[in-house]
Design goal:
Layout: H1 3-25, H2 29-47, H3 50-55, H4 60-77, H5 81-105, H6 112-126
């Protein structure tokens, strides 16, 4: 995928996330979840082009993990506990992978502390093991 295409996908991710945030503010949680899932599919697409994202200064790990976090939280609010746990685990797995490999694969600045704090809160709220 070209860098221009990745930039387009990144903008689409941002738009889907912002749309979902606005839908939540108006109480449309089911529609917001759909928009977050659409954003997540864009994050997955960018993830398959990780190196080009790095070259283009696209913070792919943040987009992917933040999408997982939002889907997990909203799924829990909607009482879809299996989906909540699924996306929670996706975020944890990616953080663990990057923590083990970040020095060898990336010069991307990390903010794992903030993301881990959010995930720890979700774990407590949702009683995940």
């Amino acid at each position: 995928m070209s860098i221009n295409c990745l930039k387009f996908v990144e903008e689409s991710w941002k738009l889907k996330q912002a749309t979902a945030d606005k839908l939540i503010e108006t109480g449309k949680k089911e529609e917001a979840l759909y928009s977050y899932i659409e954003a997540f599919t864009r994050a997955e697409l960018m993830q398959t082009n990780y190196w080009k994202c790095l070259l283009s200064n696209i913070p792919i790990y943040s987009y992917y993990i933040e999408s997982c976090i939002r889907i997990s939280q909203l799924s829990y609010d909607l009482k879809d506990y299996s989906n909540s746990k699924k996306y929670y685990r996706k975020a944890i797995e990616l953080i663990e992978f990057y923590e083990k490999n970040i020095d060898s694969i990336s010069k991307e600045p990390t903010n794992f502390g903030r993301l881990k704090t959010i995930l720890a809160t979700i774990k407590l709220q949702c009683n995940f093991e």
